[in-house]
């Protein structure tokens, strides 16, 4: 069985055109999620019911929440198969939907994502946004993807527990999916697709500021935390270098660097645990992992510092700055994937069993079977 999931918020006739074309192929069970579009758009969804199962959110919850609602519905069907997600605004062609769905096996632990290469007439905000995001993603994950924002993706039904465990209800959900895939044993592969923008992407509900903050929020918080820790580390390094000034240069660098890192890492651990990764694990597990990582980063940092001093000599404060910048990406990736793991396996299984909607929220309505 192949499922095509289309989250839709205030769609227009482009959604109906897509549904007509896909339905004519008789390849997919189509599921559309009306994400709180309101009465004004009832005629669109009544028409959509001719081709698809329509699930309805009483209020707008966001693209991530709409996808989770569809995944929960599919999970309840107890059918093996492949899930393809596509946008409702006409940016994904039927041929590309088929191409992405055919790129994945039912038993494959992977995410296939469409990859646009942004040739031709592309809105500037889309081109700039994708460029920034893909390099940030590379910095964080070590994996280079040409297109991290494409909503055309495919995964097996067996991946649903993972998909439901991912944080985020809006556009950040799709980025979190890519960030956590490797950690959960899912490979990521790209399939080239057409770059289609209609009316300069005027139908998009993506907010460049509000949604960007959600997508990049964790990275921003980590950067600010790192700046605070670096300022503390750098100040302590300067004071300790004066204290150990009588020692040979190599010893002075080692003692100053180690002492400064002990001070700054204590501050950094507490900020990252409480405010950056919002990690709730009790006990000393994350503390032990953090200082094990800190020891490794410190060793690497010190080797870089000594190496730069040996090769070039020069200002020891400038060398310290270069060494810190070199270790930044490694530190973020390791802390996210190793130190402050989102959930342990027991917690993941528990989350996968929870319903998507809270008791006080209006339940999802199935308009068509």
From TrEMBL:
Pfam families attached to this UniProt entry: Glycos_transf_2, GtrA_DPMS_TM
Membrane-topology annotation of the record: Multi-pass membrane protein
Glycosyltransferase 2-like domain segment(s): 5-130
Keywords associated with the record: Membrane, Transmembrane, Transmembrane helix
GtrA/DPMS transmembrane domain ranges (all copies): 221-340
InterPro entries reported in the protein's UniProt record: Glyco_trans_2-like (IPR001173), GtrA_DPMS_TM (IPR007267), Nucleotide-diphossugar_trans (IPR029044)
TM region(s), chain numbering: 234-255, 287-311, 317-339
Compartmental location: Membrane
PANTHER family in the record: DOLICHOL-PHOSPHATE MANNOSYLTRANSFERASE, GLYCOSYL TRANSFERASE
Protein name: Bifunctional glycosyltransferase family 2/GtrA family protein
Lineage, top ranks: Bacteria, Bacillati, Bacillota, Clostridia, Lachnospirales
